[in-house]
Amino acid sequence: MKIENKDLLDKIFFKSSTVSYSHFINLSLYDDEFGYYKNNNIPKDFMTSPTTHESFGRIMSKQIKDIWNYYDNPRQFTVVELGGNNGKLKKDILKDISKDKRFFNSVVYLNIDKVNGDEINNIDFNADFGCIISNEFFDALSFNRFIKENDEIMEINVKLKNNELVEVYKKIENFNFFNNDVISKIPNGSVFEVIDDLDSIIKKLSSFFNNCVMVTIDYGFNDYNKLFFKNPNGLIRCYHNHSMDKNILKNIGEKDITCDVNFNFLNDSLDKFGFNKIANTTQEKFLIKNGFRKYFDNATRNEEKRSMISLINPDGLGGFHVYYHEKPEGSFSPSCLND
Q1: pTM to 2 decimals?
Q2: Domains defined for the chain, CATH in brackets
Q3: Pick from 76, 134, 121, 133: which is nearest to 102 by CA?
Q4: How many helices (H) and strands (E) does the chain have?
Q5: Helix (H) or strand (E) holding 167
Q6: How many CA atoms, within 13 angstroms, populate the side-chain half-sphere of residue 187?
Q7: pLDDT value for 3
Q8: Going by C-beta distance under 8 Å and a sequence separation of 6 or more, which residues neighbour residue 11?
Q9: pLDDT of 339
Q10: Cα→Cα distances 293→56, 183, 309, Å
């Protein structure tokens, strides 16, 4: 791939002509000067649930209040939002909960996002009670890429060679992200992604709370069978000029780069650090069970109703996974599971 955006590539390959994909992606997205998220001159292609309609935030505020009630209305209740970007979800949530002064006054709200210069591993606090919420956070984390060839797992790295970007393979002696049964079923020639340093992120999140419920909303898969079909391009998604492609090495710093979340892998990491899985559902069911119909019926404009429908479209945002975890193991029962 011929070289583009030389200033950014000079930073990426400053120390070595060969780098991991996670390093390459991290700087492509978050470099302070040239990264996609930091460059205000580049129009952003993505539409998220919070920016689609405020009903998403209002329903999330209801879920947060349910958790506050579950903990018997503590005087201080900390909400950690992961990847909240410019704070749209935070704004909608705080606006809605401000109607209940006692609840509102108990809430300490932290929006942690790398776009705003926040590094999770550099944040230290501990609260007795609270919740962690995230919407499309884990799919935006940097990841490494691997390929299975001749029944061996190889890491795919990026090399700057003769002013071109090329992929090079490095043999992995002890690939321990998946068990041997899963690895054996991945077809030769298949590429797959693994979130970089996930355990350290989850370990840090675990240190924030003595008691908390975690609500995770994201797209991805929760069945390892997704990896058992030959996929030479992996499960990445790149967005540039309102179109999707799978070529990370093109339009460097000018495109969004994400990959499907492997929820089995994520759940294993959460379990390792004390987050017990409670339940999972879809965003469609999560919103409908939590009163979406009321907000939809109150909408008066057709354009607004169309936006709201996209939140529950099972082929789009409505098909996102919603996972609940609790630390330590308790008896929280999400309202979306109740009839």
Answers
A1: 0.94
A2: 6-278 (3.40.50.12710)
A3: 76
A4: 12, 16
A5: strand 164-171
A6: 12
A7: 58
A8: 27, 31, 33, 34
A9: 47
A10: 12, 44, 10
